[in-house]
Amino acid sequence: MDQAQIAIAPCAQGAVVFDPEKHLVFKHVPPTLTMQQIGLPNDIGLSPVAVTEPFPLFSPAAVEMMRSEIAKPEVVQNHTFSSNIAANQLRGYAREHAPFTYAAWTHPTTIAIVSKLARIDLVPWGDYEIAHINLSSKTEQQVEAELKDINRCGHVSDECIDIFVEEKPIVGWHTDSYPFVCVLMMSDVSGMVGGETALSVADGGVVKVRGPSQGHATILQGRYITHQALRALGLKERITAVTSWRPRSPFVRDDSELRTVRGISDLNELYYDFGEYRLEILEARVRRASEEMRTRRSRGDKFDTRGHKAFLGELCEFVQQTTKEMVEEEQVQKGIIEEVDIPDAPVN
To answer: Is 272 helix (H, G, I), strand (E, B) or coil?
Structure first.
C-alpha cells in the first residue's frame, strides 16, 4: 500500500471504544433485490436476498477510526497482500491490530443489522475475514486524464461511461468463497463515475447496483451470484472494507470454500478459523443426531437404518469438502486467486 498516495489519517490519540449508539447510523431497511428477481431458483442460496441497495451503517467518526487503524505500520508491513487480480489488500489484521474495527463488526447490534437485511441469522465468517481491505490509488494526473476521456463525449452520458468503465472491470465475473459479504465504503466518492456492482441475471442480462458512499454499505449473497465490480473513475483513492458472513446455525448448510482466498492469506490463521468452526458444526450435528437416536430408542421406535445412513453420508460429504478446502501449504501458489470458468456476460 502506498500511503503517500492514499490519504489516511494517523492513529487517533488514545483508545476509542466502539459505541453502537454513537458509531452505528443504520435507520431503515433499504430496497432489496431478491434472488427470484434475478431469476435464480428457490433452492439456490440461503436467503431470498440477492443484494441490498447501499445504506448508511457507520458514522464519519467510526470510518475515520477504521481508516486510522489500517494506517498502522504493523498492519501495512505484516498484512499486505497482492494477487493476480488486486494489487493492494490488507487481510487478517483486525483482531490483533484494529480493536475498534474488530469490535464494530463483531458487536451484537451490527450482527443484528446485517442479519436483518440478509433475512437470515448470520455471524462474521471468522476473525481473518473481518474488514478485508481493498485499496486503489491514482495520481492527480491519472484522475484528470480519466475525466478528460469520459467528457470527450461533451457530457458524462451513460454511453460514454460504458466505454471507459464497463469494458475495464476491477474484477471479472466471479462468485465469492463465502455466503454473504457486507461491503463498506471508506472513501469520499462524491466525484466517482462508475463503481457499481454488476450482477448476471438468469435471462442473460445484467443488473447494476450503485456503489455506496462513505460510511454506507451493501450486502450481497455473493457465493451464489455471478457478479463483478465495475471500475471507478475520477477518484484519487478508493478504499472498501469487506466482511464475510456465514449462517449462525450449525444446521443450515455451509457452502463456504477457500478457492478465492488461499493465495492471499496467512494460511495458519485462515485454516484455524475454517477448521475450528467446521468442527463445531460437525460436533453440533453429531450431538443432535445422538440425542434423537436415544429418544427414539427410549420410545421403542424401530431403528431408522436408511435415515441414519443418509445422515452419515451427509457427514462424510461435509468432512470431505472440509478436507478438500484445506490444501497443503506447499501446494498453494501465493498471490494467485483461482478463477471460476464462467462465460462472460455483457453489461447492457
So the answer is: helix
